[in-house]
Amino acid sequence: MNSTLAKVNREQILHESVRNILEGVGEDPFREGLLDTPKRVTKMFSELLVGYEQDATELLNGALFDIEHSEMVVVSDIEFQSLCEHHMLPFLGVAHVAYVPHRKIVGLSKIPRIVEMYSRRLQVQERMTRQIAEAISTLIEPLGVGVITSASHMCSAIRGVKKPASKMTTSSMLGVFKSDPAVKADFINQISISKMIA
Asked: Is the domain 58-197 a CATH 3.40.50.740 member?
């Protein structure tokens, strides 16, 4: 099955599923206000879950540059929006990403694009954080990668425990970020400095 046909089939399944949900909650999917809801929700999911159609190597698009730079590179406060795979409710937050180059650096826009790709899938924050770190480690081959994410989860804010002010922080440390406490501490310090400047 080609990718266009597969996409059309997925959209039909989503469209019918939304209509079934509307009926399941006791609504009339054919009333005026809901008539186009299946189409709108299908379009929304296509946008929110576009990460399934993306590949990290393609996103990088050859933007690796040979350079003699051995100091830590930090990209902080990368905003992301994702959907929790448990309840399909949003979680929103920021990612802080750092790496210590080993003969190569990557174009600045590529790190936020990698964050965006993994966040635009059904996720748990812990796995997303690890996937971002592992992708950067594989693509750039640095001496180490550190990723810290912090997010508010709607599944705990508007249902269940109902604690809207709570946030979850996760981290993934690879290479020198894991083996050298001073490197990890420097990363955390740089994040703190960026917050003071902002």
From this structure: no
